[in-house]
Predict the 3D structure of the following.
Amino acid sequence: RLVWGVGVVLIGMLGGTAWLQARLDGMIGQAATLADNNITWSFFQLETEFHALQDALRAMPADRPASAEQAAHLRERYELFVSRITLVDPKQVHADLPTTPQHLATLGRLNAFVQRADPLLSDEVSTPLSPDDVARLQADLGELATPVHGLSLMSSQAMVRRGEQRDRQLHEHQHTTLALTFLQMLATVGFAL
């Protein structure tokens, strides 16, 4: 009976250790996946393109229509900026980043800006931008600067919290695995005696 009891205990400890090792492997795999699919980088790309669009608008002449080269550069900056908005859409990032009211509100404001700016800046538009249009777009972007920066901060903070939580769980599992391994060694020595 003692042999059976020790055998059952050993099997239970080996099973527990195997389960913990599988959990550790899953957490490490998740960390690698998040590193490959860095959500924070998408938010920083949006903010970078936002500022590049602001800079391109500031470079537009205030007293006359822009040259063809200036207009082409502005349209290119605009198209890049618009392409970054979809990267931070909650449908794209929800699995890795919980959606917040701030995120939804800022995304709504960005989409409203795109609806106002598209008739002026999309590739299909051939009419030159007036100085009034430039001033209006600059004002619209000025109002969005703080919320767009807030999105970058929010994503960075959320990923840091997630990483800290994962690291805590990894350490807890490692300690438990070490304790189970030590108990297995004691049970094996006890079984041998």
Summary: The mean pLDDT is 81. The two ends are 15 Å apart (CA to CA). Helices lie at 2-36, 39-58, 68-85, 90-93, 101-121, 131-192.
